[in-house]
Automatic annotation (TrEMBL):
This is Poly(A)-specific ribonuclease RNA-binding domain-containing protein. Pfam families: CAF1, RNA_bind. GO terms for cellular component: cytoplasm; nucleus. GO terms for molecular function: 3'-5'-RNA exonuclease activity; metal ion binding; poly(A)-specific ribonuclease activity; RNA binding. One of its GO terms (biological process) is priRNA 3'-end processing. Transmembrane segments: none annotated. Belongs to the CAF1 family. Residues 527-582 are annotated as: Disordered. CDD domains: RRM_PARN. It comes from Daphnia pulex. SUPFAM superfamilies: Ribonuclease H-like, RNA-binding domain, RBD. Residues 440-520 form the Poly(A)-specific ribonuclease RNA-binding domain.
Amino acid sequence: MDVTKSNFRSVLEGIDDELEKASFIAIDTEFTGLNDGGSNKLSSLDTPAERYKKVLNGSSEFLVVQFGLSIFTFEKKVSKYVNKTYNFYVFPHTSMGGLCDKKFMSQASSLSFLATQGFDFNKLIKEGIPYLNLLEEEKVKLKLEKRNKFSNVDSKVPCHNNEISEIPPDQKGYVDHIVSKVTTFFESNGNDEEKSPAILEFQCSSLQSELIFSHVRTRYPNLLFVSAKKTCGGCTVTVKKAASSCNLEKESVDKKSLPAAEKPRIEDYMGFSEVVRKITNSGKLVVGHNMLLDLCHILGQFCEPLPEDYEEFKAMTNTFFPRVIDTKVMATTKPFRDLLPNSALGPLLKALLKAPFRNTEIVTAKDFPSYKDDSLKEHEAGYDAFVTGRCLIALTNYLGKLFYASHKAAAVHESSLIAPFYQKIYMMMVTDIPYMTLSGPDLEPSREHIFYVTFPKSWKLHDIFHLFSVHGTVRVDWTGDTSAFVTLHRKENCHFVLSAMNESTLPVGCSVISYETYVNSKHKNVASSQAAEVQEQEPPRKRSGPVMHSNSSALPSPKKSRRDSENPKLNKTQFAVSADWD
């Protein structure tokens, strides 16, 4: 079901009840871009902290424009799921007088891709549901309190607001023009009290409305000024003159007695953020696929600004989403990785619809579109969320059959077999750290077989191969025109590299150091730089996260790697080994 501004409120009213009944929910998002490149380019040697930093710096300016929410409810009596899937279009506020006029980045390739998938950009911009994160909410609250307090001031006396706005230079001409019009209006028939009250109206912005009340209204205590917000943005200021002071007082009282519903409330501005908060409050299992970007964008856009510190990000995620499963982690983990050659979402579903996997029946609720196996809907957030949920059910059923001979279909959220996968988020492209661990320490595999090499700008790939030829085949990950990481295929040869490569044996302009030495040197330089810049600042207060789940034998070993066809190739990365690199 597509959800836009026109039907959002009616959908929102029923979400709480649906989430309460849900066995689990699956989510997916579509973005205006993925990564801005440059120094934020992903590397196969990123640590979880480095990967988060790159996502934070390289992706946070892009927007979620579509949010898929697929709710699965298991009915035990008939052993099947009832599904309700929502496809929310989300877009920033555009009618708040500049208060939340958000700037964002877009990537040509991402927008082009969405267009080829039939994405409706007109619907997004015209009907997209607005939102506020917690920081934006506080700013809007203060603004609304100020405006509501201002609108409650008695109209027949000068403004009592002590924070009378200064006139910006570009608005001075406008204010002078309004003063002139009101003066003419006030002086015309000013002594004829028998006539009906006259009306003068101005179409203006929210800022101009405040200026009128601050700098024009105070000059005419016997005029009634009323400001009304228009649905399409901006304001209408109405100026009235009454036949008598009694009538003027009556109109002023009538204005102040307007029902609270006619005054803007913070709830009117929260928009889609309310959905995310309802998901958080439900405490339900949340499922995604390759979901690091999804989580970062959802948290930053609808919850709170993302923290700089990686450990704080983990704590923040555990606060808002205490039970998360990434089906990409499951699919690339034994026993599944030997059965599923391609863990991209589309191919994964196709594989899971066949033996040896077993699927529980899913029935679409009344008044909701039935996706079934409609691949034409791929990359619609709602459809992808639905597919992600289907994949989790099939993967869980297989684990049940593997561990229990008489296993029958059961609710996913009741299975203890999926507990080892909680709070583990897939690390795309990284060969030896397959996932982030949100609920505890991350994996720290040995990288003693990796070396950081610097060399002259004239060097080519074959020069690096030649330098390491006596130690076997290697992989080269370029970090610049004059540096690269070199990974030995034969890890046992790592102890001979540094002793064989010293100043007397290395070519001129070339150096080789261990990965550990490189990391320590990098951290030392960063620490020194930060100490010089923020010497007088207190360190950020860190939140403590929940206790980590114990690792299961079903999870991949940190020393294992897997080539993933879903991963894009790195620039300037060459492999001098066979496809079964391990």
